[in-house]
Amino acid sequence: MQEILDTILVVGAGISGIRSALDLAIMGYSVKLIDKANYTGGTLVRLDHQFPDDSCGICRMLPLFERDDPGQYCLRRGVSHDNMEVMRATELIGLEGEPGRFTATLRRKPTMVDRDRCIGCGRCADVCPVVVPKRLNDGLTMRKAIYLPLPYDLPNNYVVDLDACTRCGACQKSCPTKAVDLSMEASERQIGVGAVILAAGFGMYSPAAEGNYCYHHPNVVTSLEFERLMSPSGPNQGRLLRPGDGKEAERVAWLQCVGSRDHKVDADFCSSACCMYSIKQSVLAKEFCGQELDAAIFYMDMRTYGKNFQSYRDRAQREHGVRFVRSRIHSVEPSSPRGDLNLTYVDQGGGMVSETFDLVVLAVGQRPAPDARALAEITGISLTPQGFVKAQPFSLTRSSREGIFASGSFAGLRDISESVIAANGASLAASLLLASRGKGISEIQVAPAAGGNRDRAAPRVYVAIWACGEAMWQAADLDDIVAQTAPMSSVGTVRIVRDPDPFEGSSELKDSVAGSECNRLLICSCVPNIFAGRLRQFAQNLGLEASEVEVIDLRPRLEPEGDRDALRIRGDIVSRISLGVDKLSGTLPWRTPSAAIEPRALVIGGGIAGLTAALAIANHGFPVHVVEKTSELGGNLLNLRRTLDGGQPQRLLAETIAAVIHHRNIRIHKNARVVKFEGQVGRFATTVMNQDATVERIGHGVTIVATGGREAATKSYCFGQSERIVTQGEFERKLDEGAIVAEELGTVAMVQCVDSREKSRPYCSRICCATALKNALYLKEKNPGGDVFIFYRDLMSYGFIETYYTLARQKGVVFIPYGVERKPGVVVENGAPVLTAVDPILGREFQIRADMLVLSTGVVSHNCGEPARVLGLKLDKNGFYQEEESKWRPVDLSRRGVFGCGLAHSPRNITESIAMAQASALRSLRFLSKAQLSAGDATLASVDPQSCMGCRTCVDLCEFQAISFDDNRKASRIDEMMCQGCGVCAAACPVGAISVGNYTAGRMIGWIEAMLAD
Amino acid sequence: MGKDFEPKIMVFVCNWCPLGAVDSASRTALPRKAQIKVLRVLCSGMVDPGYVMKAFASGADGVVVIGCPLGNCHYISGNIKALRRAYLLRNLLVGLGVEEERFRLEWIAHAEQHLYVEVVQEMSQRLRELGRLVVPGLFRARGKF
Ligand code: FES
Fold first, then answer.
1. DSSP state of A997
2. Could you say which of B16, B32, B36 has the minimum Cβ distance to residue A74?
3. Which residue of B17, B23, B116, B132 is the best one to mutate when testing the A interface, meaning the one whose CB has the most A CBs within 10 A?
4. What distances in angstroms separate CA A505 from CA A444, A516, A530, A541, one per listed residue?
5. Average pLDDT over residues B13-18
6. Which of A184, A832, A852, B15 has its CA 20 to 30 A from that of A417?
7. For domain B8-130, is the CATH number 3.40.50.960?
8. Do B46 and A939 lie within an 8 Å CB cutoff?
């Protein structure tokens, strides 16, 4: 039988692809990450600012431990990891075999430029005669047929746009390094993979075909075009000018739901992300252009369903003065071919209103990825009628075929944070598959290389200059550089390397270094990042420590020709080499600090989230303790009978519980609670008090908190004054138990947002609208003649839930909007509730006598305060666990090594809670998969206890809780595992007692002196 | 100081957001009549005021510290610390007789290469007007270093 393969193919290198690939690479799998584009980053490269903090922060996806495996630079510039191979301009064109052993055929499109030779000088683009619109800027600017896909990419290579290229050959002639080769052909390659993760992203609706949005007008743009308009790297370099006539925009309108929630364009779904990105754009525009800018959002429902979305909207309205106009758009008409636009809409009262705007932004909806069909065919998975991946019940990531998983927005409509969660889920699913076939992380683990501490021999540096771009070196005169380098102090050998791949197996370089007397290695290269990752491996084979090797960037800072003479270029290069030599010769060898990991997990909370996480970890072979406060497993799910899409939650729960209680790796503590929690990631010690008051101390490496939530109690709307007034939860339970009979109910009224999204509880509970739809549809099914009225503020039927909203309206459920300032009134007459509300269109009051009034009271966390206190976790202002970073690390809580999921983190439906639990499990496995956790190596702070005067300035400054004050030593102490090596403490220390790795004050000063010396 | 005066500008650039902009700018037109020395640091928060002083003392006519846009610091708040420090540093420099414009603290995102070019251009322009920095005697008194 063929062997199971531990390589995983990730198709698509956008946010979710990068997330999945990094997850798996960190766990130890070998990963092939491909993208058909010439760059990585997917849609993100076009978005400069993201909700909710209007900043980027993608680099926070990089791991906080073992920081040396992935490249430590901005992830927008590319992604790298020792266990990962990134292939750009590459597509998946065939997949054979079965789960665990697929054979994937990859096709690499020719870019006509040899990546290894290109030095990015740009001469080719200067001579290229073809000018085409730049896709990155959505065609708002122009570029040549040979171009840089991203200006800041690493390494930055030119590529040829094959569709535009006329094959004139000018670029080929101009290239100083002979990197351009117009005869290059596509190449194919077959690789064996155990599983495939599809992360091909999403498509965007094109409003071109729709008449009433007037998209052909230059001042009507899509939301993505607007991002580029505002971008500093966009056409106006950050000024908001309208494309038609270059006038500064003063009045901007956002039109929501363009291509979403619209039968006419085959979109019976909500694209989920547009409401928030429009608010973000409006706030940014206000900040960019000043508060005078009129920013108005025209919407049907503002879907602020996610964690902290509502408060973001409130802030936009209150602090920034963004106008929110509930309306239906009638038409957009130009007043001149390149000028203003007249927007006509129907307002809430039914009146027709016209306003004039400078710029109209269409918040276009999402569509399946352009490649979705092709990929589905190649991989043999099924799609939904709308063309999205059809996922298994209660899963966001498992496709219809085993071994093929969907990640991020490829599997549905998501924003960044949800994409990251789904990407984690996809990695977990892939890892679980391989684990079940005997290729889990415990099997593939490699033992850390052993090596003793070396004696402190005098440093001798081997300088290897990698001559990549010939032309550049001609200008610089290589021999002269060698001649100037050799006499530097501590330099042992200087050598020019011409080998295209100097690190391969038994290369010349290796023998040469081994044969020399040198104990330090300096690689000088124009493409330093290619080397950085593989160099460590290479060094290790030579018996060198990470701190004893260094790669320096010799890319010439090219300036217009003639501007600098050869002498200065040479001088610049020599000074950089001397800095590198200096850096190495000053380092004393040290071992990368590491700490043993207790290979065990603790899960607090035995609801579906906790159990899912426990099971996933246990199935990877690690012991798990589950602590449940009550006597029963299941949590909230015990109360749920049906889901909106016809899923069977009780069956899911029964299966999960059965799997958990029979699992040999899981131990359950019922009626138990955590009374003490100590230690830190890798080595937590938790004291659990069991039912019989015995205490038990558990050592574990990671912690997952899933302490759950519950339906909020209420006193509003006469709740408690009649048994005919119930909450949604009670209603569902009573219907199920037969205490209420659907067929006997003539009129049922439901009120949404009870006590929610207002001062007392400012957030949206996300699941209540779907629950109301579910119960309303159930009533209509059992009793089609009965009346159901739903009073709502904004109906949060995000994503595919929208379909059920449509269905409910078709079935005759009546939806009546109300404003928070005019809530429906309720009185109890003869034991039955009577509602008084205002007809939004006629403005008149009307009354409904209901047989049943059902209140959607929302979700509150389940006494998170107690566990939060014991575990030392932060809560957000709404009482849920506070995550570290809402977009990039959504399940990491404020204490490292502790992850949160389920309702205690934020309100979510079953499938979403499960996805989050999977993400938490994956983040935990990332630690458990290693016997030893190691810190970053060369850049860690250390304190000289002799100099420390005990002022403790550094202790409070450190954002990573890495510094504590040691009362015995009377000096600060740095926890190397927590230290991220930023150097803030060193700069702040008034006596210079702290230094960060190689960046000691003395050397910094030395470098500054050397650089400025003439 | 004639037209030929080429100011030396020392640039401390954070490894994260701004490095992309600085890298891509170094391939395009930078001011012709200036010597720009770029030193990569891990975070703008690690730039000790002493390094800035040292740069001036070693012959820089101007110093620029470039960090990630506020809110984007890879280490969460390093740039805010740099901002606080810059305020004191500026006062100190002015007190020593170094013109305020010789020191700049900037936030530049990965895609804002034009901003970097602008900053360097403006600065070299201004430095050419101000002329070479005459290092005040007080600089020689060494503090932490
Ligand atoms: S990481 Fe760039 S300023 Fe801190």
1. T
2. B16
3. B23
4. 22, 18, 17, 10
5. 92
6. B15
7. yes
8. no
**Structure-token pair, residue A697:** 């101390």
pLDDT (mean) for A11-31: 94
pLDDT digits (tens, 9 = 90+) for B63-109: 999 999 998 899 999 999 999 999 999 999 998 889 999 999 999 99
Contact A445, A215 (CB under 8 A): no
Coil, helix or strand at residue B45: helix
Fold of A1-108+186-201+369-447: FAD/NAD(P)-binding domain (3.50.50)
- Of the candidates A906, A921, A910, the residue with the CA atom closest to the CA atom of residue A417: A906
Put residue A469 in one of left, alpha, beta given phi > 0 → left and psi -120 to 50 → alpha: beta
Please indicate whether, in this complex, the C-beta atoms of A984 and B46 are within 8 angstroms of each other.
yes
Topology (CATH) of A204-366: FAD/NAD(P)-binding domain (3.50.50)
Inter-chain CB proximity A120 and B27 less than 8 Å:
yes
Radius of gyration over alpha carbons of chain B, in Å?
15
**What is the pLDDT at residue A925?**
94
| Domain spans in chain B, listed from the N-terminal domain onward | 8-130
Distance B126 CA to ligand 1 centre (A): 27
- Provide the mean pLDDT of chain A: 88
CATH number of the domain located at residue range(s) A110-185 in this protein: 3.30.70.20
Q: Which of B41, B47, B68 to mutate to test the pocket of ligand 1 (most atoms within 8 A of CB)?
A: B68
Hey, what CATH class is A712-858 in?
alpha beta
What pLDDT does A671 receive? 95
**Residue A462: beta bridge partners?**
A493, A521
Distance CA A429, CA A452 (A): 39
Cα(A246)–Cα(A228) distance, rounded to whole angstroms?
15
Tell me the pLDDT tens digit for each residue of A107-125.
999 989 987 777 777 889 9
Q: How many CA atoms lie within 13 A of A661 on its CB side?
A: 11
Shortest CA gap A323–chain B (Å): 26
- Cβ <8 Å between B75 and A980: yes
CA distance A150 to chain B (A): 9
Q: What is the CATH number of domain A941-1012?
A: 3.30.70.20
At residue A348, the pLDDT reads 87
What band does B31 get if pLDDT is binned at 50, 70 and 90?
Answer: low
| ipTM score of complex | 0.93
Ligand 1 centre distance from Cα of residue B40 (Å): 11
Answer yes or no: is pLDDT of A9 > 60: yes
Tell me the pTM: 0.90
Domain range annotation of chain A: 1-108+186-201+369-447, 110-185, 204-366, 461-585, 596-708+862-933, 712-858, 941-1012
Topology match between the domains A110-185 and A461-585: no
Which of B13, B41, B75 for mutating ligand 1's site (highest number of atoms within 8 Å of CB)? Answer: B75
CA-based nearest residue in chain A for residue B44? A984
Class of domain A461-585: alpha beta
For all residues of chain B together, what is the average pLDDT? 85
Verify whether ligand 1 is closer than 6 Å to residue B78 (CB atom). Answer: yes
- Using CA atoms, how far apart are residues A207 and A185, in angstroms rounded to an integer? 36
Here the tokens at position A546 are 């990470």
Superfamily for the A596-708+862-933 domain: FAD/NAD(P)-binding domain (3.50.50.60)
The gap between the terminal CA atoms of chain B, to the nearest Å, is 31
Which single residue is written with the structure tokens 């065919």? A377
Name which of A571, A656, A670 is nearest A625 in CA terms: A670
Q: What is the mean pLDDT of residues A834-856?
A: 92
pLDDT of residue B138: 61
Mean pLDDT for A819-839 is 93
**B62 CB within 6 A, ligand 1:** no
Closest CA to A652 of A910, A390, A389: A910
